[in-house]
């Protein structure tokens, strides 16, 4: 019997499954159309960016020649220094550095207020039996889609009544109010994924609302905090309307100062300085995104926007 089995196994080894090699695919019309479409989309964003970058390193004499696609010759960073230190915003020629520090002063309290309030509210709605939680979530969902222009006047009246209109804290407070609906929904959806057994065990261990949040929930919130942090930094830093509406003469953010620099001309428009000012304003959020971008993707895939 063993010899028969060995013979049959040898016969099976000798039999090879027929191979059907795939026919190599050539370049189809569909792939060409996709490549052309993607190239046009890339050029739509990359060509203006190339012009902005190269213009910021050119002299005004070279810019007057009209060749916007030429490389800087000579290469100079004078426009960058001038935009940072000497650019005129209205009648004040102190450069973008004033707006940069104002933006930093606005950014940090805005982040602390918006993220703290939203995280605690989302945690309460997701993991605790809050009365009228469903109605509150519905109101938050509606508020997330209300345009700022509709509530601008009430917010101005409210901030004036609180004596914070025209101050850094006034702008930070408005940022926190406007960001709370969408951030609360994001935190709430994320915390819904935490197993209820963990909460039950924590409550049995005499854990209070704040102790559970501090010792259990926060250590598990790294991914979602990175997501919200990137969203808020980008939104607050690039904001123009809130800074223009609620900022005073000495508290205008960098985006407002940039707009004033671009529209203010005394004699000849300094295009290289304007381009350098635009790049200096855009660099901080870009740096944050490139540093924390991979964590942003991890946070999204970990459940930041799951239903």
TrEMBL record:
Domain ABC transmembrane type-1: 100-292
GO BP term, pick one: transmembrane transport
Gene Ontology cellular-component annotations: plasma membrane
Domain of life: Bacteria
InterPro entries the UniProt entry points to: MetI-like, MetI-like_sf
Subcellular localization, as worded in the UniProt entry: Cell membrane
SUPFAM superfamilies, per the entry: MetI-like (SSF161098)
Membrane topology category: Multi-pass membrane protein
Transmembrane segments: 32-53, 106-128, 135-157, 169-191, 212-233, 253-271, 283-305
Family: Belongs to the binding-protein-dependent transport system permease family.
Full protein name: Carbohydrate ABC transporter permease
